[in-house]
């Protein structure tokens, strides 16, 4: 787990690829990516966080009151995280099998 501009993100490796993931609970979403190296993965995650923060800076005054997550939104976010975890596991499995075929 790492932090950039106060936003935490994950970096991990699997089968010669590096993956990153960050969550944005305020928007009930997040971002995920893959890179060839750890350095590239960290850079990509940091760039995504910077874009996320830049988007927040352009929001109109008083948006915080309207953006408070509801219980339903939090449950939807949790479901999305579970879905991302499953998708990433499938992607890692696919890449692992793909690497075995080319060896």
How would you sum up this structure, described in words?
The protein is α+β, with helices and mostly antiparallel strands and 103 residues long. Helix content is 54%, strand content 25%. It contains three helices and four strands; from the N terminus they run ββββααα. Strands 1-2-3-4 form a four-stranded antiparallel sheet, sandwiched between helices. A hairpin with a 2-residue loop joins strand 2 and strand 3 (17-24). The model is unreliable at 59-67 (pLDDT under 50).
Keywords:
25% strand; alpha+beta; 4 strands; 103 residues; 4-stranded antiparallel beta sheet; single chain
SSE map:
Elements: E1 2-4, E2 7-14, E3 17-24, E4 29-35, H1 38-57, H2 63-66, H3 71-102
Antiparallel strand pairs: 1-2, 2-3, 3-4
- Oligomeric form: single chain
Work out the helicity level.
Answer: 40-55%
The arrangement of helices and strands along the chain is EEEEHHH
Number of helices: 3
SS-based structural class?
alpha+beta
Q: Write down the overall geometry.
A: flat
Task: Summarize it.
This protein is an alpha+beta fold and 103 residues long.
